[in-house]
Amino acid sequence: MNVRPSTRAAGPVRRRVATGATAALLGLTVALGSGLVSPAGAAEPTAITGVILGVGANESQRTVSWYSSADTAQQLQVAETSSLTGGDFPADAASFAATGTANIATSGGFNRHATVTNLKEQTRYSYRVGSEGNWSATYSFRTQDFEGTYDFLFFGDPQIGSSKDVAEDGAGWKDTLDVALTANPNAELLVSGGDQVESANDENQWNSFLALDKLRQYPWAATIGNHDVGGKAYEQHFSTPNTDNSAAYYSNGNPASNSSGGDYWYIYKDVLFIDLNSNSYATSQGGGGDAAHINYVTDVIDKHGSEAKWKVLVYHHAIYSPADHAKDSDNKARRVDFPTTFSKLGVDLVLQGHDHSYSRSYEIKNGQKANPNEKPGEAELYPGPGGVVYVTANSASGSKYYDITQPDGSGTSGAGNGADPLNPDNYWYNSVQNQEHVRTYVKVQVRNDQLVVQNVRSGTCEAPNSAVEKGVWCNNTTTAQPVGSIVDDFTVHAYHGDGQDIQVNVPNAAPGEFGWTIDGRNGLVDLGTAVEQGGDRFAANGRINPIAVSDTRRSLAPWSVSASVSDFKDAGKTFSGSYLGWSPRVLQGGAGAQAGTTVVSGYTDQGKGLSVSRGLGSAAQGHARGTAKLGADLSLTIPDSVEKGSYRATLTITALSS
Questions:
Q1: Rounded to whole angstroms, how far apart are CA atoms 247 and 112?
Q2: What is the rounded distance in angstroms from the CA atom of residue 130 to the CA atom of residue 125?
């Protein structure tokens, strides 16, 4: 059940992240840095390059990273755009001290990173980096509502320089980003599939990747690929939240070496994202291998999984993909190591790159197809417990494509690459495979009770498409498959257990016995947005999903169905289930059913509402055998002191019979 108190409540509205009081009108707190000392008498202005906006630990944070030509103390300055006058920042603009070190020799200069915290929702901000008298250009970004639905975009392998034509690869990358954000201007995150560049320490390639101003307006959630790992430029260019840079998450086991690594996580509006350095997969390399990643994912989900409604993993090396890397020994090893843990932990979606082709897996549980009856290309997915969908993204720049390869006789589970019995041209694990040699991106719509995933064409066979321009075949008809057309479109529906709306256990009635089930498919009961009433409370209404009660016993014994609701929760916020009341109804007579009594919200009578067990329906001894349908109108009244949020609760249903 979702309840969102209106922002028009009397008095201050509390949010998931408390507003600080130390940053003047912005409501921002100052993040202390390393205290880098500026050398005296610097003769020349410091050049600022490579500015990129990054994702923060939650929706109220952003990171900014950049390169500096001099080792000077620098900062990130932020202000609400509306407070700028003639482009000048106000005197009370918030400043955030930067941390950083010297770059490796091939990069030159120094790197800087800063984090802005306690941003306000639905606000446009302007920012710049550097120091007084030596600022970068001014850039801007916009926050949106910190609760509710949103879209994010996933991009596979720009790999600038892969075609040996950096300029054309950069043009394809720019075109994909322009197409994607023109079509989806309110997208809130840009998620990387890895391999930003072809050569890890080639700053010419990095400059081409970073040249796009869109990367200073929308937060980039970086992922490390195999072409990014061979140097420090990846770590120099990106700052990621909650990052564990322990030796276990480096392929060579040495964070101090000329290599990049680390695993990280963040929560953005009810999605827990976990990003892994899949370059480290075997302990023989020196790091902790896949076992370390499994421990990391387990620990993060154990600690933070309850704070989000969806769990999404991101890493570079696709374990279920259709092209050149499908049969790589390292990917087959990951295919054995990862899936059982991901199923056990309730992961919903895995986003991958590396194979420069598009695929969408079947629902995979413990390394096997979860539902043998799932058809290729099925659009509506209802994964049961442990069902995980894996998506591999195609090239976002057109710098390189891999052609789809053929199945073999190695098996149809685990590490095997055997054929799908329902579609022998595909691997057993892939519901959809596609390669047209055109650029694409993946759009993910996060909704209350579903993830809608689309693979979208961002180009055609025409330029900019550097691999095709250099002679690679292309199979695309601009008229029939234009820019913006859909390659694949599917919806992952949330799993609610076998219960009412959220995690309700539902037994199946056996012939000649008493039992009850949900009438129809069990979906989320959404009470919508609460409405302010009387200046001191909010109210919301809805109906439970109907419950079918069947009694075919010869004993004609009495029965009853009752229910109670848990507290409503949204991460660390909560309010009592006693505020929920109901009016039971018999929707379809039978089995002697009589409706239970009305229970008012505890807000009305200071009672316990549905926080204690209440009768939904019952029948007396000697009733006729048959089937009834029970329902109830829900009535929620809460005080206006409840914090803004998207709250859920569990309605536990109990059936009793003599």
A1: 23
A2: 17
